[in-house]
Amino acid sequence: MTENTQPPASGPHAAPADLPTQYTPADVEGKLYERWVERGYFTADAESAKDPYTIVIPPPNVTGSLHLGHAFEHTLIDALTRRKRMQGYETLWQPGMDHAGIATQNVVERELAKEGKSRHDLGREAFVERVWQWKAESGGQISGQMRRLGDGVDWSRERFTMDEGLSRAVQTIFKRLFDDDLIYRAERIINWCPRCLTAISDIEVEYQDDEGELVSIRYGEGDDSLVVATTRAETMLGDTAVAVHPEDERYAHLVGRTVRLPLTDREIPVVADEHVDPGFGTGAVKVTPAHDPNDFEIGRRHGLPQLTVMDERGNITVHGPFQGLDRFEARSAVVAALRAEGRIVAEKRPYTHAVGHCSRCKTTVEPRLSMQWWVKVDPLARAAGDAVRDGRVAIHPKEMSSRYFEWVDNLHDWCISRQLWWGHRIPVWYGPDGEVVCVGPDEEPPAGEGWHQDTDVLDTWFSSGLWPFSTLGWPERTESVEKFYPNSVLVTGYDILFFWVARMMMFGLYAMDGTPPFHTIALHGMVRDQFGKKMSKSFGNAVNPLDWMDAYGSDAVRFTLARGANPGVDVPIGEDWVQASRNFANKVWNATRFALLNGATVEGPLPSPEELSATDRWILSRLNSVVAETDAYYDDYQFAKLSDALFHFAWDEVFDWYVELSKTTFAAGGRPAELSRRVLGEVLDVTLRLLHPVIPFVTEELWTTLTGGESVVVADWPADSGFRDAEAEREIEAVQRLVTEVRRFRADQGLQPGQRVPATLDLTGTGLAAHEEAMRALLRLQAAGDGFTATATLPVGGATVALDLSGAIDVAAERKRLTKDLAAAEKELAGTNAKLGNEAFLAKAPDQVVDKIRARRATAEEDIARITAQLARLPQTLAGPVGGAS
RNA sequence: GGGUGCAUAGCUCAGUGGUAGAGCGCCGCCCUUACAAGGCGGAUGUCGGCGGUUCGAACCCGUCUGCACCCACCA
């Protein structure tokens, strides 16, 4: 007998008895992963004749480590690619990382700050060198986590968005866009982060409701005054006009004249502009062209001066009492000064309004007039929208398409320059006489006195937008580009639909002659805690996936994540659920252990159905159904459904019913046992292969042991043989119903599960005679007795199976239960009768439905007859209870 | 301000017109020789409220309430 103390099995064809009774993930995971990598299973060959299947990793930030959300995403991608690999595709699961410009720079700057230094102390070159150093130190963390998770990526192709090849891609696309007039430089209002000291794009701004103070200020004097309202009083220092609506009669007399701007000696014009809503507030708006995007536009329309009153850190620069104050200090100071002058007409506090914050550091964004580089997105975004509209790219789940369209159809030009040091430097050189030259990747930058390169770098998403092809070697026409572009599917979270997905669409279509970067966008949700709350470090509910992998194994973590993955929907996950998955992995382990102990085999051809028992035919029929079902779910990215289907098939049908029913066969030996051993081997072989993409480790360990095969990683994906046996399925369902019914009866009677009960089992006419031995074993029935007979009507040939459980009857309990069942059956009969008596129903309901109702009525009638008969017999069998009944 | 989605068992969620489901949790009995990380049995829901369509509604329509998320230049 095997004891828990046995060492774990290793390698193919381990003696079955060597398998310990519990699965220990740590014993196999690392070993197996290294074996897979060494054997090159994950290496994608661009010269292969096989059809390609490609998924690129959504590149994690090089600064970070993987959180549960990554583990989730990787599980899905890994499952998809593992299945395709088994299906015979040349599969590329492309790994890599993103340089994450602003995020990484911030991290390294924080490191420097600990040493009391700023990046300026190092200078640009040394700072960038320092970031590379940081990357070298922390980048390995992510790949380590990916290995633990089992990600079947092609490590030989690992890329980083700052790699030389990828820099060439960036320069190439920049040059093309520049030459096509799709990149331009312009001075505009941009979102400026006064802490990061860089421009950020619209989507890097997060709006939150902040409490502010809305003050109303009187500009001008007497009859010629008007009142404007603002939450940013300090910007009034930069006002260069007041705007009113052209048809607003209240202010008609002022348009074209000027009013004096309080706290200054400036007179500013009153202009009429359609943008102003006369119904809002006083209908008069202060105009600060250099510090507000709307005002900027108004200023442009009216030729107003743009007066910048703040520096890059948000400090007031205009001479006077406010000079040097930061914007928030200035705000109070300005209000105080205005109040002193009697200019404050009204205050509303608190006043809640949406305020933009830097998505990286949460600092309040300051709109700022600034010279930046822009991508003219109009033609690109239209193409990106059309590719989805005309079906060349499918978004899954399709409800998410509306979000995508909402964005690509209303896109503003994209500000791509960042005042950072870490990133792809803008490949533009400026000459001494104002020349502007965009330098392509193979071109020499202009040399000579007075030439210098633009100091800005590109938005991170500029390079990650090229990821589906830059990783393959583009702009060279490499074999990999030919083979693996377009990618097959993009698997990513809905949260970066705009940041990343839309950019890849725009760049892919533009760079690759109208070929979209992927055929399908499969969007998943966000991982949440067990109560559906967002995971965050500050809230304290964030989980390090490594902790759970250590405790329960990678398979358990993966299975839990896959099981929660309904398309586009957030995934709650708790430790309890990981335990449940661990239990499942252990169950798979033990079921295989049972099979090996009983000589299950995959040798030789599968016996033909004519030779097989109904039990064997049933499980093979079910197996093939599940293969088909799994395929359908995979093709629809229904990870939760496929995991659940496999879970229930494996545990309930194979590991419980089939294994239990087989025990009798194995015990009896002979030809039937031989056949069943082959069937059990087949069922486990296929089930392990079906499970492998989701739980790769335990399935590999077991499959190689069971089959002696090289590796399930490169085994064939199961195919539906088409074998179905409805008759056998009905027969086994009947057995299950009977067994369940009698078990329930036993439990109700207080009989202990292990207690052998004298009983007769009359299966005459049921067609279930072949299962008598198995049922006796499952039901712990002994030789015949006499006395009370409990019966259950089976849907097989309408015959009755009679069970004799003499001496084991608690009459009161049984009467109570039978009475309850009778009431239920009578209710069912009444319900079905009502329905079948309803002419409208009969006229309109489909035949299938009517037949179903008829069948239900028939069953109810049979139940009533049976229960009535049982109740009638009950009082005569007043034998005392035996075994635990009270 | 606009948009989208969600409200189903104690918790987290499946279920797109025909007898209400899963996992976890809960109750009871069992170490039945693959597995106690297990086995068997059981309880639990006016499917958010109100109307409507339909022979029939968790599901379709309207409406109300409560959440969530996304987008947005009303000072």
The fold-level CATH name of the largest domain is Rossmann fold
CATH-wise, what's the superfamily of the largest domain? HUPs
Total E-strand runs: 30
CATH architecture classification of the largest domain: 3-Layer(aba) Sandwich
Query: How would a crystallographer describe the biggest sheet?
Result: 4 strands, antiparallel
Mean pLDDT: 87
The residue fraction in helices comes out at 40-55%
Q: What overall geometry do the principal axes of the alpha carbons give?
A: elongated
What is the CATH C-level name of the largest domain? Alpha Beta
Per DSSP, the total helix count is 26
Radius of gyration: 37 Å
Residues in β-strands, percent: 15-25%
What does the oligomeric state look like here? single chain
Task: Give me the secondary-structure category.
Answer: alpha/beta
Number of domains: 5
- Tell me the strand order in the biggest sheet: 6-5-14-16
Please give the alpha-carbon distance between the first and last residues.
38 Å
Given as residue ranges, the uncertain stretches (5+ residues, pLDDT < 50) are: 1-15, 793-799, 876-886
Structure summarized in a few sentences:
The protein is of the alpha/beta class and about 900 residues long.
Topology:
Elements: H1 25-38, E1 52-56, H2 68-86, E2 90-94, E3 96-97, H3 101-114, H4 119-122, H5 124-149, E4 159-160, H6 164-179, E5 183-193, E6 198-200, E7 205-219, E8 226-230, E9 241-244, E10 258-260, E11 267-272, E12 284-287, H7 293-302, H8 327-340, E13 344-358, E14 366-375, H9 378-389, E15 394-396, H10 401-408, E16 414-415, E17 417-418, E18 428-430, E19 436-438, E20 452-453, E21 457-458, H11 460-464, H12 467-470, H13 479-484, E22 487-493, H14 497-511, E23 518-524, E24 527-528, H15 545-552, H16 554-563, E25 571-572, H17 575-597, H18 614-635, H19 639-668, H20 670-691, H21 696-707, H22 726-748, E26 757-758, E27 761-762, H23 772-779, E28 781-782, E29 789-793, E30 800-804, H24 811-836, H25 839-844, H26 847-873
Parallel strand pairs: 1-2, 3-4, 9-11, 15-23, 22-23, 24-25, 26-28
Antiparallel strand pairs: 5-6, 5-14, 7-8, 7-13, 9-12, 10-11, 14-16, 17-21, 18-19, 18-20, 27-30, 29-30
Helix pairs in contact: 1-21, 2-16, 9-10, 9-14, 15-16, 16-17, 16-19, 17-19, 17-21, 18-19, 18-20, 18-22, 19-20, 19-23, 20-21, 24-26
The structure holds one RNA strand of 75 nucleotides.
